Description:
105 residues, alpha+beta, 26% helix, two-stranded antiparallel ribbon
Amino acid sequence: MDSFAALMVIIACHADGSGCINEPLSVASYKSPSECQRAMPKEVQKAKQFAQFVYGDCIPVDPALLAGKPEIRRSIDPQKLAGALTERPARETAFASPRGDVASR
């Protein structure tokens, strides 16, 4: 038996590599890290219907933190996700100087 429970966290990222959205796409609790790892491929595949680039990880937690609490299963609203992943024009342009510092306009 594992001595830790686990939380699976899945995040969605912009296709252009500019970063990931601030809010996880999904968070779910599991009784063990191995149970979480077994569920990961299916959960990542489900998440790919909302975003092209998704990343997931199983984070071990002390089971006492989850004891007596209902199972955690939280997902972001797909409409909110679509808005977060649409490309937006930059508000500023950053320039790097030869010294390595960054200025913006």
